[in-house]
Amino acid sequence: xxxxxxxxxxxxxxxxxxxxQSLPDTPQTRAPAYRLAFADPDFMTREELRxxxxxxxxxxxxxxxDERGITSTVVLFGGARIPAPxxxxxxxxxxxxxxxxxxxxxxxxxxxxxxxxxxxxxxEWVICTGGGPGVMEAGNRGADEAGGxxxxxxxxxxxxxxxxxxxxxxxxxxxxxxxxxxxxFLMRARALCIFPGGFxxxxxxxxxxxxxxxxxxxxxxxxxxxxxxxxxxxxxxxxAEAGVIAASDLDLFRIVETAEEALAVIDTWPQTxx
Length: 274
Description:
Blueprint lengths: L12 H9 L5 H4 L10 H4 L5 H18 L5 E5 L16 H5 L1 H19 L7 E4 L5 H11 L4 E6 L16 E4 L2 H10 L1 E6 L4 H15 L8 E4 L1 H7 L2 H7 L11 E3 L2 H10 L1 H4 L1
Helix pairs in contact: 4-8, 6-7, 6-12
């Protein structure tokens, strides 16, 4: 629940913004130097202000999620181009059309997780996706169908990526910095689920795996959906045999096929079962 603002004797910032908008139109009031610093987009986007923007981008979602009482999430990563089954005919390749089954698994998994989330009134086990189309849409869609809320962490891209219509509006965030977005994926994560996808999915997967492997992040249930897909894309065993990873690193994740199997693995994961 949002705390009441602390009382203080100072004038409110919003009042000052409103006051400047009603001033006489003069060369002085039109000058960029006269703008309030925090209400001046030209100033806020200067190169020197990057550290401030990084901090703001970290703080805004964190404060909103704290105000909503959300303490843990289940993160879904996966391809933006994977179609819903009803849109298979529009897929660019037959292989992409076949991947639509993972859209359905993500949707089913999100429904199961959200039913569990509702037991905590939507504070724990909240589905979190990248907020876009494909597998991300499937995750938010499943949560919506279960009657719960879900988070979307969108990113501004050169090509259009608007939030999918199933993200809870009050939990639909937008990012400029990939690094801060990735932090928010992991800060509350209780489990990570990786579905087939492209460069972005692989990037998110390997960064999270590296953090766990190096001890920078506690081990959590780490599930890869689709044995055929992942064994073809990455030769995990070869990495271990070559010695570039330890054999024990192969225990950092599990490969699953269905939503039900994924939930069972989460519930029997050593750290979860404690």
